[in-house]
Amino acid sequence: MKKLAIAADHAGFEYKEFLKSQLKDKYEITDYGTHSLESVDYPDFVHPAATSVEQGENEMGILVCGSGQGVQLTANKHQGIRCALAWMPELAELARQHNNCNMVAIPARFIAKELALETVERFLNTDFEGGRHENRVNKISC
């Protein structure tokens, strides 16, 4: 069973809980918080989730905030993380196929829960194509 990290801020809390409920039978999920609608600082939850993916404790990660931008930017500060902001399944699929992304950021205030789930599932079920993309991905890190 694939191991996933999941984290959100207060704006993404309800989507995080929804995604967990829909994915729990297919994946082993570690929830890095937040655990309520109370206002929080997203880096406090994103950094531990990203570290777990970077260190191999989890294979992939799902992040959720209002726009998806804050969590995505924070995760991408980690050397071993490639986090894509995705609001539709096709973007998630391309992030995996062409960029070998290991985390996805979902913008809770801009898409329906069902579309968020479809986007996440596409991300989790798409493989990296390698080939011509491998060399490009290897040039991403500084």
UniProtKB/TrEMBL annotation:
InterPro entries: RpiB, RpiB_LacA_LacB, RpiB_LacA_LacB_sf
UniProt EC number: 5.3.1.6
A Pfam match: LacAB_rpiB
Signal peptide: none
Xref: Gene3D superfamilies: Sugar-phosphate isomerase, RpiB/LacA/LacB
Statement: the UniProt record of this protein carries the keyword Manganese: no
Coiled coil: none
Main EC class the enzyme belongs to: isomerase
Annotated positions binding D-ribulose 5-phosphate: 9-10, 66-70, 99, 109, 132, 136
Residues annotated as the enzyme's active site: 65 (proton acceptor), 98 (proton donor)
GO-annotated biological processes: D-allose catabolic process; pentose-phosphate shunt, non-oxidative branch
GO MF annotation list: ribose-5-phosphate isomerase activity
Protein family membership: Belongs to the LacAB/RpiB family.
Protein name in the entry: Ribose-5-phosphate isomerase B
Organism of origin: Chryseobacterium taklimakanense
Native organism taxonomy: Bacteria, Pseudomonadati, Bacteroidota, Flavobacteriia, Flavobacteriales
